[in-house]
Structure formats: C-alpha cells, structure tokens
Write a structure and sequence with these properties.
alpha+beta; 14-stranded antiparallel sheet; eight-stranded antiparallel sheet; globular
Length: 679
C-alpha cells in the first residue's frame, strides 16, 4: 500500500485548523482583491527535510452579484519510497458568502498518477451536487446541505472571536471531498505555552481541534497574538508537523529536487521486535500491536475486524491479534457469475474499478476461458495481473483499473484495483483491502518492519478471502494485518482507509508466534539473550557468541534498535569500532546470491567448496556435514546464513588496522544450534 494514497486522502481536512485565525476585514473595493497570503512547510516529525509546502491565498470579490471570499489552497508533497521519488499536487478552491460564511462552491484537483482527479461541488436546490472525474469518467453524488456549513474564512473568524473574547470551546461544520460528507470540527482554546519553533523560543496560545471523521485524533496548534497558527502537530499518518514560514523559504523547497525528500515506506512503517523467516509461507501468526505515539488515543478493536482475524483487547493501547491465511474450501461449489443483490457494490463498476470497461471485460474473459469455479477463476486473474503489470514502480500514485490496464505500471495499489476490476467483470464480488505487510530492509538499522500495503479480497461463499497480485505466492500468507476494506464506490479515499491513515506510523508490532505448516515458533518469555561471563547466548534463536578480552557486552536497548541482538563495546580509551550482532531473514534466492568467504564455523567440516569472484569480492559456498553455511566477508561485515532462512550479521565500523582481526575472532566464536520451537 502506498502511504501517498492516505496522505492525499486527508491533507485538505488537516489543513482546516492551519488557516489564518484572523478573519479578513471588509473591503471597500468590490472587485477581486487579494486580502491574505500564507505559506507553510510540512514535516514528518523526526525528519529534517520538508515533506511538502502549502500556500493559502484569500481573495474578496463579487460573484453573481454576491460579495464572497475565495480561498485557494495549493499543496505540493514530495517523498521517496525506498529510492523512488513521488510528487503529489493538490489544488483546491472554496467560495463562501462574505457575510454569512456559508460555503457555496468548491473544487479540488488531485494529481497522484499520470491522470488528474477533479472534484467540483456547487449548491443547487439546497443540496451540494458533487461531480468527480478521472480518466475520462465522471461520477456524481448529492450531499445534504444547510446554511451553517462554513467556509475557511468564516471558521477563521470564529477562531479569532474566541481568542478575543476568551471563549474556551466551540465547534463548526464544514465539508471536504476527502470524506464526501459534512464534518464537525471541535476546537478547544487552552493556555499560553513557551515552545521551540526552529531555533526560536515563542510564547504562543495552544489550540486543540478534532474532526469527527477522525475521532480520537486531536490536532494541536500554537497561535500567536495575530491569530496565526505558527506550528501545528497532527498525530496522524505518523506525526505530521506544519510550520508557518515566509514565501521565500517555501519557494526554496518548491524549487528543489526530490533527492532530500523523506523516505516513507520504511519511515511510516510499524517496527517489529523480531524477524519472520520466509514470511510468505506463514500460515498463522500471533501479534501484539501497541500504540507508540498519539497521546490520549486508543486502539479500537473494530480496526482489526476481518474474516481471518481474532482480536483480544489487552488494554486501551494494546491488542493481541491472531491472523490466519484464508483459502476457500476447494470442495465447495462456488460458481460464477455470482448473483447476489447484497453484494451489489462489489460487483458493479465505479470511478476507480471500471469493471464495465470493454477492454477489461475482454481481458478477464480471455484469462479465465471456460473456468466457472469462482476461486480458480480468481487465481487465474491474480496470476495474470502479476505478470501483466510489467513496470513495477513505487513512484506511482493511485491509478484506476483502466489506467493500469493501459499503462501496465504501478505498485500494490495498481495491482489491487486492476485485479478487483477483472474479478467483477466476470461476476466475482471483489474489493480492495489495506493494512500492513511484513517487510525487511537489510540496509536499515532496523530491518524488521510492517509497511503499508494494498491487496484484493473476493467474496467466496460469504467469506472475504485475500488475493495478492503483487506477491508471487500460491496463497496469501499471515504476515499481513488488515485494517480497512472498500469497494471504492464512494470515491473518497480518505474515508475508505481511515484506520490505516490513523494508525500507520503510530504502532509497533511484536511477533509472539508464527507457523509454517505444522511447525510453530513461539516466543519464549524473558530476554532474547543472556550474558554469562564472556559469552552471550540466546536459547530461542539457538545462537551464541564470545567477546574479545577486555571488551564489554551492551544490551540491545542501549544499542538503540530491537534488530540488534547484542553489541560489543571496546575497552575505554582504545581506538576500535563497536561490533554489532543482529539477526535477519535471508530469503533463499538472496542467500544463494550472497555467498561469501573462507571461514569455517563451530568445528563443522567442509564437505564441498565452491568459489568465484563477484564484483571483485571473493565468494565461497561451503557445504558442511550438518547444514549449508553461506558467508560474506569484508573488512567491516560478516553475514552467516543457516538453513536458507535465518541470517546472523556481524558488522563493525572499522577504526583501526587491527579491527578486522578482532571481527574475525568474534566470527570464529559464533556457534549455532537449532532454534527453540514447539510442534
């Protein structure tokens, strides 16, 4: 799942409390006049580089004989997903009655892929008529309306008056395309605080606000005496921070390139306390999910409801979740096409899942041929999508199914919507699901993570069974956690994926148990490893290592990463780099490609030796009497792989000429036994 989808689906709503708290005064000149202009930079807390820039311009003008305010907001977001850059542009305009503040007209244009999505809403006969267009299609919706639904200037006026008169709490109604419904914003004005803004200390009034569509997510703003929100923190999509800046500073960001943009795939991931070896073979897993940030927020068990989930509440901020792979009974007589009125929205075409498109229908029928089994037909379509999207790109935004069929490009979201459309085209009820998927990045200080992901679900005999065209595996594993599922009928991305948007970047996940077939690995109580003299050992991992004379063991907590098993620290005053032992998963193909040295280990006898040169490095495969050992050796890292799944990495920042010798000494002390498990 691409985090940029959830960001696009919510930013305009987040911006409501960022608008100027000072309401523009009356203007004598009835012609169009710009009365205010403000700029902000957007950061993910913990990142020094901006994620985006926001401009807000307010004009006063005559429209159809009525005095109105027109607010233009422009957002440019720039991010990396691993090393692929993505830009998002959202431009919106809101027109409100200058006297009453009633919202009269609004538009928004989102550019998340090669094709723009355009929204337009105007009042007609007391209702808001909304038109949404994307890739040559238009969909219309009607929203009930009332005169107390306000525009941004009227909301700013309410803020300003509350500050002036000492009002501590108020609320107002507004509308956003992100949720395609009227929302209520509650505001609390608190006391003055001294906070840091950049390198300055400022005395500002703290203002908190909450939107009913984001229940439990309370935004915090710090407002100066002029009523301007200087700083705003949103505990949402990680922790987002908006800082008011001058135009020149914002333009520096807009004129820069994407090289310094924050990375979001790992940056907004849920860190895990340990690895899941060969995760795509995991048929069942038990997790503990904990809120990490979001002060005052709680976990809602409804966020985890799915046909293959069992939720146990451990507290307001902790849940235990058992996930099982889910495959329909192969003996069940599930035939297509499905004709069930209760599943109508999952069988019909819409703006993003164009299952009535002629080319999509033709492709789907050609793939399934004469197959009438629902599950077998769905699996054929899954395999076809996987092979047909030839450009696997993390730089894509949210595309519609027809767009994907034409471009054959995208990431998990594009695979998911195309598969859903193909399934519906042949009468298989389908929807898209979003959540977190286990992912490893061995180059990261914390390699074990759950990242945002999207896949497809089909309704098979009353149960929603997952398919994943992005990942080549015969069945969908249990190394994923689903938060939301949607038919995408409403065209509101923000509304469809509320749980993911609220939790991503704000939870951590402990792996308590996982199984591969009948083999079950269970986490044992107590610390991961125990220090006994000059030896550190872990019975659950079945590994031990000895330290050089005079060196000291440092606990993983002190070392600063749960990916680290143990750190060896040199004697005080000696010029040596630290030695770090960590544990990772080595997928079979990667392990075979990373064969590396001449060291023997633990007294194992070499049965066969194969050696070659790769990029100037010496690589050796050692066939041992008990198991295969793959090793990588350089001056600063050794990588040991056992039985094709578990890897132990010894790494060292080389400070002196004797450091590689010390690293060799520690490597020779490494001993491995079968890991603790229960059948």
């Amino acid at each position: 799942m691409s985090q940029r989808t959830t960001i696009c689906g919510i930013l305009t709503l987040i911006l409501l409390p960022l608008l100027a708290l000072t309401a523009p005064g009356a203007q004598a000149d009835p012609t169009t006049t710009q009365v205010e202009e403000h700029w902000s930079l957007v950061y993910l807390i913990g990142n020094e580089s901006p994620l985006g820039a926001v401009s807000e311009k307010i004009y006063r003008e005559k429209r159809d004989g009525r005095d109105v305010f027109r607010t233009q907001t422009s957002m440019k977001m720039r991010m990396l997903r691993l090393d692929e850059a993505l830009e998002i542009n959202i431009d919106s305009e809101q027109v409100e009655d200058a006297r009453t503040g009633t919202l009269l007209y609004l538009t928004q244009k989102q550019l998340m892929s090669s094709q723009e999505t355009a929204y337009e809403g105007s009042l007609q006969d007391g209702k808001l008529e909304v038109s949404i267009s994307h890739y040559g299609r238009t969909q219309k919706q009607t929203v009930p309306w009332s005169a107390d639904i306000l525009g941004p200037v009227a909301q700013a006026r309410m803020h300003a008056e509350a500050l002036l008169h000492g009002t501590k709490e108020f609320s107002c109604k507004t509308f956003t395309f992100d949720f395609m419904r009227v929302t209520t914003v509650k505001v609390w004005i608190l006391d003055k605080e001294t906070i840091s803004v950049g390198d300055k200390k400022m005395d500002l009034t703290r203002v908190e606000s909450e939107v009913d569509a984001l229940a439990g997510v309370r935004m915090q703003s710090w407002v100066n005496e002029e009523g301007e929100a200087v700083k705003t923190v949103v505990p949402y999509i990680g922790n987002m921070q908006f800082l008011r800046v001058d135009k020149n500073e914002a333009m520096e960001f807009l004129d820069s390139n994407s090289s310094s943009a924050p990375e979001l795939l790992i940056g907004l991931s849920a860190p895990s306390d340990r690895s899941i070896p060969d995760p795509y073979r995991t048929n069942e897993a038990l997790y503990e999910i904990k809120l990490t940030e979001m002060d005052g927020a709680t976990l809602d068990p409804k966020d985890f409801e799915a046909d293959n989930h069992d939720v146990t509440v451990l507290g307001s901020r902790r849940v235990q979740l058992r996930v099982r792979s889910l495959i329909p009974d192969p003996m069940a007589e599930l035939r297509i096409p499905v004709e069930d009125s209760s599943l109508g929205e999952y069988l019909s075409s819409n703006l993003y899942i164009e299952s009535d498109d002629r080319e999509i229908i033709t492709a789907a029928r050609k793939v399934i041929g004469t197959e009438t089994s629902l599950w077998l037909a769905a699996k054929k379509l899954e395999e076809w999508v996987r092979g047909s999207i030839t450009t696997k790109s993390l730089a894509m935004g949210f595309s519609s199914a027809k767009e994907v069929l034409d471009t054959r490009e995208g990431d998990c979201t594009e695979h998911a919507v195309l598969l859903a459309a193909l399934c519906r085209a042949v009468g298989i009820p389908a929807r898209v699901a979003v959540g977190l998927l286990y992912y490893e990045d061995r180059s990261s200080p914390h390699p074990w993570n759950f990242v945002g992901h999207m896949w497809t679900e089909v309704n098979a005999g009353g149960r929603w069974c997952p398919l994943d065209a992005t990942i080549a595996h015969p069945w969908v594993d249990a190394s994923r956690i689903r938060f939301d599922a949607s038919s995408l009928q409403s065209t509101s991305i923000g509304d469809a994926f509320l749980s993911l948007s609220r939790l991503i970047g704000n939870v951590s996940i402990d792996v308590l148990e996982y199984s591969h077939g009948t083999k079950v690995w269970k986490r044992k109580p107590g610390p991961e490893g125990i220090i006994e003299g000059d030896k550190w050992a872990s019975s659950s991992l079945g590994i031990q290592v000895r330290k050089p004379k005079g060196w000291a063991f440092v606990s993983p907590t002190e070392a600063g990463s749960s990916a680290v098993l143990i750190t060896l620290s040199p004697p005080d005053g000696e010029n040596h780099g630290r030695i770090v032992l960590s544990s990772q998963v080595a997928r079979t193909k990667a392990a075979q490609e990373t064969i590396l040295t001449h060291q023997e280990l633990g007294g194992y006898k070499v049965r066969e030796r194969k050696e070659n040169q790769v990029n100037g490095q010496r690589r050796v495969r050692l066939e041992l009497e008990r198991k295969t050992l793959l090793l990588f050796k350089s001056r600063r890292i050794k990588w040991f792989v056992f039985e094709g799944d578990q890897a132990y990495v010894l790494s060292m920042l080389v400070e002196s000429d004797s450091d590689p010798v010390l690293l060799d000494e520690v490597a020779k002390s490494l001993e491995v036994a079968p890991r603790g498990s229960s059948e």
